[in-house]
Amino acid sequence: MGDVEQPAVTIKAVGSIAIVDAAEWDACAGDSNPFLSHAFLKALEDSGSVRAETGWIPYHVVVEGTDGGIRGAAPLYVKSHSQGEYMFDYGWADAFERAGGQYYPKLQLAVPFTPVTGSRLLARDDQEQAMNRELALAGCVEVASQLEVSSLHITFLTESEWKQCGQSGLLQRTSEQFHWLNNGYATFDEFLSDLTSRKRKQIRRERREIQENPDLEVQVFTGADLKEEHWDAFFGFYMDTGSRKWGRPYLNRRFFSLIGETMADRIALVMATRGGNYIAGALNFIGSDALYGRNWGCCEDHRFLHFEACYYQAIQFAIERGLDRVEAGAQGPHKLARGYLPVHTYSVHWIREAQFREAIERYLVHERQQVDQDITYLSTHSPFRHADVEDDGF
Predict the structure, then answer these.
(1) Domain spans of the chain, in order of start
(2) pLDDT at position 392, please?
(3) Cβ neighbours around 222 below 10 Å, total
C-alpha cells in the first residue's frame, strides 16, 4: 500500500508486527486486553501460526505522527479463507461465488483465532484519540480499495466502535456470547447464594464430585509457576480438541512457549491431574478487568471436569482477583446454567460490490432482530434468583 498522507500524519500498512515498536503499539492498544498486545500478536507471527501458508497474511495499519510515533493502529490481515474468525461468513462467500464473483482474498481486522471483544481501531488515549481511530479505519478501507478485495470485516469490536463504523457506512452485525459478571462477590459461595436453589445445588454437586475424588487434583498456574511441562501436556489436549472439533487446530506448539516466555503474568492455566499425570487443561488470559477463557482439552473423560476446569475455576479466579467478568468464548447455551449470561457481540463489514452489499444489509436487519430475541429469551431463563421466582425451571 502506498502511504496515504493526512494532515500531520502518515497512514501505512506493514507486513509484520515485528516492524512496529512494541512500546508504541502497546501505547495505542492499552493494557486492558491481552490479545491486543504486541507480545500476543507477535507470538502468533513468530510461531508461524499466522502466515501466508495458514491463510492469515499480516497487513497491519499504523498511523504515524510527524515525530514518527504511532498515533493509531489496527491488526489487519489478508485472508484466503474464513477459518478462525468465529463470526461466520461462509454463506456470504458461497452466494458471492455462485453469482460469479471472487470472495477471497478478503481483509480481516481481528485478533486471529480469538473471539474476544476489544478495541480494533487502536489509538493513544489523548485528545486526538477519536480522530486517530477514524484515520485507522480510513486506512483499512483504503487498503481494501487498493488491494481490490471483495470485503473488509471487523470482528469482535467494541459497541462504541460498532456504532462509529455504522455511522461511517459499514454494515452492522451482531451475535451473542455468554459472560459471567462479578456482582462484587467476595467468595464463590456468595456468588452461589444469588442463584436459584436448584441451580445452586446443581453446581455444588458438580464441584463436589471433582473436589472429593481422591484421584483428581485441579490447580491453576500463572506467572513463574508456568513450566514447559505444562505446555507440553496442554498442547496435547489442545490438539485433540481441535482435531475433533474443527479438523485443523490453529495454534502450534511454539506459540504456547512464546506466550509462556512473554506473557506468563497474564495467563491462568488450569490443569487437572489424575495419579500425578496431567489429564485436562483450560487456558485463560488475564485482562485488567476480565478473565478470558480460551482453550480446553483433555485426554480422559470425567463427569463435570469440563465445567470445573473451564467455568468454576474461572469464576473463582475472577472473584479472588477482583475482576469484573469472565468471558467464556464462543458457543454455549449450556453456560447459562453455570451463571454465564447472554451478551451481544459486534462486527462491521465493508462490501465492495453494491448489489451484494445491499443483499447483505437486508439480511443483517433480520439477523440483528433474531439475535435480540434470542438474548431476551435466554435472559428470562437466567439461573439467578428473581424477586418473585425461586426456581427458574430451565
Answers:
(1) 4-176+343-379, 183-323
(2) 43
(3) 17
